[in-house]
Structure formats: C-alpha cells, structure tokens
C-alpha cells in the first residue's frame, strides 16, 4: 500500500470548444510534470471501443501524486488556479462542466507499518 493519491479530473467542453479545451489542458502538463510529488499527469480524450462503452465526460486527466500534500500543493499553484478561474468558472470559459475526484489504493482502516526515523 502507499500514500499515493490518484486523481481523475473530467471535463465536458462547451459546444464547439473541444479542441480548445483539450489544448489548454495539454498546456498544463509540462510544468506539472516538474512538480515534486507528481508521478503521472496526462490529459486524455475518450475514444470509441465496443469493449468500453461507459458514460462520462469526454476529456479526462489521469493523475498520480506521491501523497495528498503533493496533490494539494499542485491545486494551489497559480497556473492551476488561473486555469479553473478562466476556463471553468468564467462565463466565457471553455468547460461546461468538470468533475475532480481523488482516490487511494489503501483500504479503509489499513494497518500501515510505522515509519522508523
């Protein structure tokens, strides 16, 4: 088990804004990948497959962070704050809806070993 945090951030673009939103999200990758604690940060778009016909938003960030502190530090970076203010919250933004969730691979009440220092 680990202290890793897995984030799934989904985005629904406004009508006709798919490519623009996808490009804005891709632009976040280089700086984020330089952050301490960032293990994976990749924006993806849904593609068609008869073996994966689930529903959700068509643009998804798949993120893995070393721990919650690293994830929360990322969320407070000015570039990320500005992204949400201009692309998601602004009336003229590119995203109609978004959904950001975090997950752990540890079961509830996991008896983690104590770290000896």
Low-confidence stretches: none
The structure class reads: alpha+beta
The percent range for helix content is 25-40%
Large-scale geometry: globular
CATH class of the domain at 5-13 and 34-103: Alpha Beta
CATH topology category name of the domain at 5-13 and 34-103: Alpha-Beta Plaits
- The CATH architecture term of the domain at 5-13 and 34-103 is 2-Layer Sandwich
Describe what this molecule looks like in 3D.
The protein has a domain of 79 residues: Alpha-Beta Plaits. Helices cover 29% and strands 28% of the residues. The chain is built from four helices and four strands. The two termini are 19 Å apart.
Keyword list:
4 strands, 117 residues, single chain, alpha+beta, 4 helices, Alpha-Beta Plaits
Short structural summary:
This protein is α+β, with helices and mostly antiparallel strands and 117 residues long. 14% of the residues are buried.
């Amino acid at each position: 088990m680990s202290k890793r945090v897995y984030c799934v951030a989904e985005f629904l673009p406004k009508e006709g804004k798919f490519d623009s939103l996808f490009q804005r999200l891709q632009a976040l990758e280089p700086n984020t990948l330089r952050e301490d604690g960032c293990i994976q940060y990749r924006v993806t778009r849904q593609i068609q497959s008869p073996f994966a016909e689930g529903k959700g938003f068509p643009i998804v960030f798949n993120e893995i962070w070393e721990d919650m502190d690293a994830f929360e530090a990322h969320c407070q970076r000015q570039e990320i704050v500005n992204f949400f203010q201009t692309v998601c919250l602004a009336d003229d933004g590119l995203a109609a809806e978004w959904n950001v969730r975090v997950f752990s691979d540890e079961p509830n009440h996991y008896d983690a070993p104590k770290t000896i220092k």
